[in-house]
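Aggregate trends can hide what the representation actually does to any particular protein. The sequence in question and its structure tokens are set out directly beneath this paragraph.
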Amino acid sequence: MIERLRALSFRCFEAVDIAPSAGVNVITGDNASGKTSLLEAIYFLGRGQSFRQSGPRPAIRRGAAAFTISADLAVDEGRAHRVGVQRDRQRIEFRIDGESGASRLDLVNLLPLQLVDPNVHRLLEQGPRYRRHFMDWGVFHVEHAFFPAWRRYRRALKQRNRALKSRRPKTDVIAWDAELVRSGEIVDASRRAYIEYLERKLPAQAKQLLGDEAVHLDYAPGWSGDDGFGSALVSHLEQDRRAGFTQQGPHRADLRVSVASASARDWVSRGQQKILTTVLLLVQARILYERRGLQPILLIDDMAAELGRHYREALAEEIVAAGGQCFLTFLEPALVPEALADARMFHVEHGGIAQVSRRPTC
């Protein structure tokens, strides 16, 4: 968890220095006051990048040369770390315990977190890359064979695609097939094991928020046919040569989500999509805790948007029951569910943030 969060010259903030609760933290403030920017700062510490389309460079406060974000982290068994990100207009640097040279992968390992923002519907409505991202975040943290295999797979895929794009001889293309298959099958097996575990844990959590409608996950490996990835590569070689890239493989995988036997994007409203996606993230958090003893930080931006009072209360109860640290933003305290009455409250205004004693009321 984050014990102390500091930021300098980040977006609208000249300086931030807060001590969040180990549980639920509520941030209120008007539109464009900086609530989302605070979540973005935390996201930088756990992912090394922004979740906004504009990227990190505009995040530097006007008139400043760089922004700095840092946090004191409490880890299991009393251990502590300090993590930091500094960005100027040319480069970005990550530090862990004062040492430079850290990577995004180091941040992801040290500070796992998940985000629910107003664009969360993309997970269900848009292309498979959003669902692969969701799936692979969970696989990365609990299936140890996954990431080394995924890195080897991406390297071989890049070389094969280069050979295809430059119209190299067939032998130069298929020279990468053995490594693609070898590493791709590990990636696929890791994903299948994780999705099977995720689906076993899903019904109990989903019932609390979605009622009796059954939620199902259908994993598509990214290649056609029943004879395996290697056969799919062979049978599609000529198509790949015409297209100039590899069309079959784990890089084309998808995770289809259905509710009551219908596609989730067709069956549920935007508000229900938000609930369903949050359910999936809460189950991921539970799995990570069960498998590795880690509790990811949950960031929920504008929690009340598109949710009625019933859904807000139900979701708040699940968040509290899940435990772990959470940061939620609301336009005003009146929208904060009663279940979050014990949350630590912060208010953002005029480029500053302060802890407030006012208790939320529904």
User: Anything to note?
Assistant: The domain at 1-112+294-362 is CATH 3.40.50.300 (Rossmann fold). The longest strand covers residues 2-10. The two ends are 27 Å apart (CA to CA).
